[in-house]
C-alpha cells in the first residue's frame, strides 16, 4: 500500500465520522431539546444496550444488529440510501470506482445460501489499518478467532464464551528456540493482519513483525522481523499445505517482498521481490502457482518455486488487496479498490472470466467455499456478497448490515459464516449458517 501514516490517520478519521452517523442520529435529533436530560439518558441507554439477536428474534422482525429503528427518526431504508450516497471509498487511482461503475452492472440478487443464525455484541472486533481486513478466521463451525484492540480473541458459538488467546499490548516472546527466531520477542506490537488455520496462528505487524503460535501449545513458538525497512508493514498471511502435507505460510509485505516459511522448522524457504508493495498472495491448491496483487493495477500469476512471473493480470483500474483460489485450481479471484472482484481462469488469462461489482467500496476480502460452490467477498463496510459458482456467478445473495467489516470467514466445512463488524456502538460478530435443501424429506410430507 502506498499511503503514508499521516494520510492514513486522516482517512480513518473521515471513515469514523461517517461510520458513526447513526450514533449522531441517536445523540442528536432523536432526543428532543425540551425533554429532561435524565429521560434522554435513559432512552440512549435503551438504544445502545448490549443485547444479542437470535435467528428466532430476527424472524419475528427484530433487526439482526439490535438497532431499534422504530425509536429513531430515520428509517432503515433511508439510512441505507444515505450510506450508499455518502460512503467514502479510498482510491489510489482517482475515479477508478466511478469508471468501473460505468463499465459493469451489478448482478441481480435472488440467491439464498446462508441464513442469519446469531449476532453477539459481546464480541468487539476491531481494525487497525483500514485497508487490511483479514482479521476474522473460523477454524470450525463453532470456533472463530479475531482481533479486538491489541488481543487475539477466541469465540465459541456453542458455549457462547469469549477468551483471550494472545495479548500484544505488552511483551510477547517465543518459548521455543528456532534458528533465526528473535528470542527477545516484541513489545506492544501493532497487529496489521492475522491468519488462523490448520492449528497455526500467525499475526503480522506494522514493523514487519511475524508472531507464530501453535494453538495446541502454550505460549508463542516463533518471532521474527521480516525486514527493517521503514515501510515494513505485513499486509497479509496465507497459511497452506505443501504437496507432502506440511504446513507453510506466506507473508506479503509492504517492502515489495513475499516470504515463504516452513512451519515445522520456522525457516525461510523462499523470498521473492516485486516492483511494488505486495498487499496479498494466495497459493494454488496444488502449490505450484501464486496469485500476487499489490500497489499496481495489474496483478501477477507467479511460479511458486522461483518467483518468476508467468502471466500479468490486466483489467483492474486500481490497487488490489484480496485474492483467493477456487478449490479446483483452475480459477481464482482478485479484489480491488475499483469496487470490483474479478474471476480469472488459468487456461485463458488474456481477460477475466467475469467482473463482480460491489455497492459501497473496495473489495477487501475474498473467500471461496471449500466445496467450490460459492465465492464470497466483503466490502469495507455494510455488505458481504455470496455468488453461486454453479450459476456461473450470475446469481448472488447480499448480506446487508451496518458497520465496518474487520473480516469474513467460512468454517472449513462451509457450515458457518462469520463476519466481524467494527462500530462505536454496534460492534459485533454476525453468524450465518448454510441453508440445506433436504429434498428427501418431501417423501414424508
TrEMBL record:
Among the Pfam families in the record, one is: WD40
Superkingdom of this protein's organism: Eukaryota
Residue segments, region Disordered: 1-35
Name the keywords, alphabetized. Answer: WD repeat
Q: Where is the composition biased (Acidic residues)?
A: 9-31
* InterPro entries for this protein: WD40/YVTN_repeat-like_dom_sf, WD40_repeat_dom_sf, WD40_rpt
Q: Which residues form the signal peptide?
A: none
Q: Where are the WD repeats?
A: 313-354
Q: What name is this protein filed under?
A: Uncharacterized WD repeat-containing protein C2A9.03 isoform X1
**Organism listed in the record:** Elaeis guineensis var. tenera (Oil palm)
Amino acid at each position: 500500500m502506498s499511503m503514508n501514516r499521516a494520510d492514513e490517520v486522516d482517512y480513518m478519521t473521515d471513515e469514523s465520522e461517517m461510520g458513526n452517523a447513526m450514533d449522531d442520529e441517536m445523540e442528536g435529533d432523536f432526543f428532543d431539546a425540551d425533554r429532561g436530560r435524565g429521560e434522554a439518558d435513559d432512552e440512549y441507554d435503551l438504544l445502545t444496550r448490549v443485547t444479542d439477536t437470535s435467528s428466532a428474534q430476527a424472524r419475528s422482525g427484530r433487526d439482526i444488529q439490535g438497532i431499534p429503528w422504530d425509536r429513531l427518526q430515520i428509517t432503515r431504508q433511508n439510512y441505507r440510501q444515505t450510506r450508499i450516497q455518502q460512503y467514502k471509498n479510498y482510491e489510489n487511482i482517482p475515479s477508478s470506482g466511478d469508471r468501473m461503475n460505468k463499465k459493469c452492472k451489478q448482478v441481480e440478487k435472488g440467491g439464498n445460501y446462508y441464513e442469519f443464525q446469531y449476532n453477539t455484541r459481546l464480541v468487539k472486533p476491531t481494525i487497525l489499518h483500514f485497508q487490511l481486513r483479514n482479521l476474522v478466521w473460523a477454524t470450525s463451525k463453532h470456533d472463530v478467532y479475531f482481533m479486538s484492540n491489541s488481543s487475539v480473541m477466541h469465540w465459541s458459538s456453542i458455549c457462547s464464551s469469549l477468551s483471550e488467546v494472545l495479548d500484544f499490548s505488552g511483551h510477547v516472546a517465543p518459548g521455543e528456540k528456532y534458528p533465526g527466531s528473535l528470542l527477545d520477542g516484541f513489545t506492544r506490537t501493532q497487529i496489521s493482519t492475522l491468519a488462523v488455520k490448520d492449528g497455526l496462528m500467525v499475526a503480522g505487524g506494522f514493523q514487519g513483525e511475524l508472531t507464530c503460535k501453535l494453538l495446541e501449545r502454550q505460549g508463542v513458538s516463533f518471532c521474527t522481523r521480516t525486514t527493517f525497512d521503514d515501510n515494513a508493514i505485513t499486509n497479509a498471511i496465507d497459511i497452506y499445505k505443501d504437496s507432502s502435507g506440511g504446513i507453510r505460510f506466506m507473508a506479503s509485505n509492504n517492502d515489495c517482498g513475499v516470504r515463504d516459511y516452513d512451519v515445522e522448522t520456522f525457516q525461510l524457504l523462499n523470498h521473492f521481490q516485486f516492483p511494488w508493495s505486495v498487499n496479498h498472495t494466495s497459493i494454488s491448491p496444488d502449490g505450484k502457482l501464486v496469485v500476487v496483487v499489490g500497489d499496481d493495477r495489474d496483478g501477477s500469476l507467479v511460479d511458486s518455486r522461483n518467483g518468476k512471473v508467468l502471466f500479468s493480470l490486466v483489467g483492474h483500474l486500481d490497487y488490489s488487496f484480496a485474492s483467493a483460489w477456487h478449490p479446483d485450481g483452475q480459477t481464482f479471484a482478485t479484489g480491488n479498490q475499483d469496487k470490483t472482484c474479478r474471476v480469472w481462469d488459468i487456461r485463458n488469462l488474456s481477460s477475466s472470466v467475469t467482473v463482480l461489482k460491489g455497492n459501497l467500496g473496495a473489495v477487501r476480502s475474498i473467500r471461496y467455499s471449500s466445496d467450490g460452490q460459492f465465492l464470497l467477498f466483503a466490502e469495507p463496510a455494510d455488505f458481504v456478497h455470496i455468488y453461486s459458482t454453479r450459476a456461473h456467478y450470475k446469481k448472488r445473495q447480499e448480506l446487508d448490515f451496518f458497520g465496518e467489516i474487520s473480516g469474513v470467514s467460512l468454517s472449513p466445512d462451509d457450515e458457518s459464516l462469520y463476519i466481524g463488524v467494527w462500530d462505536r456502538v454496534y460492534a459485533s460478530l454476525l453468524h450465518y449458517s448454510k441453508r440445506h435443501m433436504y429434498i428427501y424429506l418431501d417423501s414424508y410430507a
